[in-house]
Backbone:
C-alpha cells in the first residue's frame, strides 16, 4: 500500500470539523492490550486484528477501532457529558484477495451523556450526514434499532433460558433464526437432540456421567448435570404462541421508511407491550432527527440492520452506503451502552458514536484514496 | 524446469511416489541416506523438491514451486482465500482424514454444535473465560464455528498431542484430524455428530504465482498427458 497522505489529511480534516462542532480531540495508542478486545469479541476479533507478542506486556493488538480505547479513556476520569473526535489509522486483516485495505484511516465521534439519549443519537447521525452532504457525498442512509429487537425477545412469554439464548445470538442472525424456528415449533427437534434426550431419560445425569467412563476435563460434573437438567426442562417447554412468534418474525424483517416503520411498530405494541418503551425511544429519536432537518418520512429503517457487526451495538444503529454494493459502508455507528458497563468495572455511561472511512470518503469525492 | 514439491518423509511421501510410479513417472530419493535430494525419471524438465508437508502450501502460494502434493486441510488452513492462490489439479485418493470437533465422553449433555454452543455460554459464566478448543487448524476451525454461529469459545494452539490437552486442563475440547478415532477414545473423547469441519486427502496442487512461461507450459502439457490429467484452467490460456 502507498503512504496514505491524502487519506490521512482527509481524516484529520474530518476530525477538525467535528471539533469545530463542539467535540474534543482525543488520541489513542495504536498498540493496544489484546486481552480486553479478545475477551469482548473472541475469535471474531482474533481473525481480523493484527496480534503480536510483547516480551513484557503480553499479547498486543494493532487497534482495530477507536471505540474501545476511547471508552476506556473516558471511563478513567473523563468529564461528563463529553463529545470526542478522533482521526487515525486502524488495522484489519483481510481474508479475501481483493483491494480492501488492511490499514485505513477512520475519523470518528463519540458522545457520552446520561440524559437525552435520543438527542445524542440524532446529533451523531446528523453531524455525519451534514459533513457528508457538505462535501458533495449523497449516500444512502439506513437506520435500525437493536433495542427494539432485544425488548421484543425479553417480552416473549417463554422461559428465561430461551430468552437468554435468543439475546445471546442477536448478532448471529443465522443461529438466532434457527433457535426461533425451534422455539416456535416451526422446525422439528433435530434427531441428535432427540437422541441426547432419550439418553438422559435412561438415568440420572450422575449415573450417565459415571457410565461414560473416566471423567476428564475442567468442566465439572455439576456443570454437566445442570445443563442436562436444563435440556430436559427445555424439552417440556411449550412452543411460543403462534401469534407471538409471527410478530417476532414480522419484526425481524421490517423494512420501511422510518415514519411508516414507527406507525407499524405502534400498531403491534398492543400485541407485544414489552416493546413499548423501546418504540417510544424510537419515536423520540425520529423527533430529534427531524429537529436536525433529517427527513424521517423517507429515511430508510431496517429492523435487522447492524446485527452482523461486532456485538456491541445495543440500540440505535446506522450506516451511510455508497451505490456500489461491494464497498463497505462509508460511515457507520450506533449506541453501545452495555459496552461501557463491561469496560467500566462497575461504572457505566450511555454512549453513541460513529466513524467515517476517510479513504473511501476521499475516493468517492473524486480524488484518489 | 517445473518444480514439484513432495512431502519429505513418511507415508505421504511413499504414497505420492506410488501414485506417480503407477502413472509411469518415477520419483525417488537420490544421494546419500538422510539427504533430502530427489530425482525424477520418465519425464524431462521436472525437478523434485522434498519439503515438509506443512511448508508446501506456503511454497505454492509464493510460487517457489509450480506443483505440490500436500493435504487439502493444510492448504485450506494455511492459505487465506486458498482457491485464489492454488488450484486443485488432482485428488490423489490417499491420506484421508477428517478434521472434527471432540469433547470429553463424560459430557453426556453434548452431542452437537448446538450443545457445544450452549455449554460454552454456561462455561464462560461459571469460569470467567471462554471455553478453550485446542487445535492447530485455526483458520478452518474458526471459519467453521463462525459459519455455524457458535460463540463464547477461544482457540488455543496445540501443535501436537492435542488429545492430551483436555486431560491436562489446558483445553475443554479439541479440533483435530482423525482417521480411526482410536486416539480420541483412548483419551476419553467423543466426536460431535454434526461437526465434520473438513474431509481431507492428499491433493496435487498447481501454484498460481509460479512462473508459467511457454517452456513450463510445454512441460506441464507433457506431464498432464503422462498422468492422464487435463491442464488446469488457469494455465490453458496464452502466456503473459
Residues:
Amino acid at each position: 500500500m502507498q503512504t496514505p497522505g491524502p487519506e490521512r489529511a482527509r481524516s484529520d480534516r474530518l476530525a477538525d470539523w467535528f471539533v469545530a462542532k463542539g467535540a474534543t480531540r482525543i488520541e489513542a495508542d495504536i498498540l493496544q492490550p489484546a486481552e480486553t478486545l479478545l475477551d469482548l469479541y473472541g475469535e471474531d476479533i482474533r481473525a481480523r486484528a493484527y496480534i503480536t507478542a510483547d516480551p513484557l506486556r503480553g499479547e498486543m493488538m494493532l487497534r482495530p477501532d477507536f471505540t474501545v480505547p476511547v471508552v476506556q479513556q473516558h471511563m478513567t476520569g473523563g468529564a461528563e457529558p463529553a463529545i470526542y473526535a478522533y482521526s487515525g489509522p486502524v488495522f484489519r486483516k483481510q481474508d479475501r484477495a481483493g483491494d480492501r485495505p488492511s490499514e485505513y484511516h477512520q475519523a470518528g465521534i463519540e458522545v457520552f451523556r446520561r440524559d437525552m439519549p435520543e438527542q445524542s443519537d440524532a446529533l451523531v447521525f446528523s453531524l455525519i450526514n451534514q459533513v457528508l452532504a457538505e462535501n458533495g457525498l449523497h449516500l444512502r442512509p439506513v437506520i435500525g434499532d437493536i433495542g427494539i429487537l432485544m425488548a421484543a425477545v425479553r417480552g416473549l412469554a417463554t422461559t428465561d433460558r430461551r430468552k437468554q439464548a435468543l439475546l445471546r445470538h442477536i448478532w448471529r442472525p443465522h443461529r438466532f433464526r434457527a433457535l426461533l424456528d425451534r422455539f416456535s415449533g416451526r422446525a422439528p427437534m433435530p434427531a441428535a437432540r432427540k437422541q441426547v434426550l432419550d439418553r438422559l431419560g435412561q438415568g440420572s445425569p450422575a449415573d450417565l456421567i459415571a457410565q461414560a467412563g473416566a471423567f476428564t476435563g475442567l468442566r465439572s460434573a455439576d456443570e454437566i448435570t445442570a445443563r442436562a437438567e436444563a435440556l430436559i426442562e427445555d424439552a417440556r417447554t411449550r412452543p411460543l404462541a403462534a401469534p407471538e412468534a409471527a410478530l417476532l418474525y414480522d419484526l425481524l424483517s421490517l423494512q420501511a421508511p422510518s415514519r411508516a416503520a414507527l406507525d407499524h411498530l405502534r400498531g403491534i405494541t398492543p400485541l407485544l407491550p414489552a416493546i413499548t418503551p423501546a418504540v417510544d425511544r424510537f419515536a423520540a429519536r425520529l423527533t430529534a432527527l427531524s429537529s436536525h432537518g433529517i427527513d424521517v418520512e423517507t429515511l430508510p429503517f431496517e429492523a435487522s440492520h447492524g446485527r452482523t457487526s461486532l456485538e456491541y451495538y445495543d440500540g440505535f444503529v446506522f450506516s451511510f452506503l455508497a451505490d456500489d454494493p461491494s464497498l463497505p459502508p462509508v460511515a457507520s455507528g450506533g449506541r453501545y451502552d452495555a459496552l461501557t458497563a463491561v469496560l467500566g468495572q462497575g461504572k457505566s455511561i450511555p454512549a453513541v458514536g460513529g466513524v467515517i472511512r476517510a479513504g473511501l470518503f476521499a475516493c468517492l469525492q473524486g480524488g484518489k484514496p | 524446469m517445473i518444480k514439484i514439491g513432495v512431502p519429505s518423509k513418511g507415508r505421504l511421501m511413499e504414497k505420492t511416489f506410488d501414485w506417480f510410479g503407477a502413472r509411469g513417472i518415477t520419483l525417488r530419493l537420490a544421494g546419500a541416506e538422510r539427504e533430502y535430494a530427489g530425482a525424477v525419471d520418465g519425464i524431462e524438465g521436472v525437478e523434485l523438491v522434498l519439503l515438509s508437508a506443512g511448508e508446501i502450501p506456503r511454497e505454492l502460494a509464493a510460487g517457489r514451486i509450480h506443483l505440490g502434493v500436500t493435504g487439502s486441510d493444510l492448504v485450506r488452513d494455511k492459505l487465506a482465500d486458498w482457491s485464489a492462490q492454488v488450484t486443485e489439479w488432482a485428488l490423489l485418493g490417499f491420506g484421508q482424514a477428517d478434521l472434527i470437533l471432540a469433547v470429553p465422553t463424560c459430557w453426556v449433555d453434548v452431542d452437537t454444535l448446538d450443545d457445544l454452543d450452549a455449554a460454552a455460554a454456561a462455561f464462560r459464566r461459571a469460569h470467567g473465560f471462554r471455553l478453550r478448543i485446542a487445535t492447530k487448524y485455526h483458520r478452518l476451525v474458526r471459519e467453521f464455528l463462525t459459519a455455524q454461529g457458535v460463540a463464547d469459545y477461544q482457540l488455543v494452539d496445540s501443535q501436537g498431542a492435542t488429545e492430551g490437552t483436555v486431560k491436562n486442563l489446558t483445553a475443554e475440547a479439541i479440533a483435530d484430524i482423525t482417521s480411526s478415532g482410536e486416539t480420541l477414545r483412548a483419551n476419553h473423547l467423543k466426536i460431535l455428530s454434526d461437526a465434520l469441519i473438513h474431509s481431507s486427502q492428499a491433493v496435487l496442487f498447481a501454484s498460481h504465482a509460479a512462473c508459467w512461461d511457454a517452456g513450463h507450459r510445454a512441460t506441464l502439457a507433457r506431464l498432464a498427458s503422462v498422468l492422464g490429467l487435463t491442464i488446469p484452467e488457469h494455465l490453458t490460456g496464452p502466456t503473459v
Notes: The longest strand of chain B covers residues 189-200.
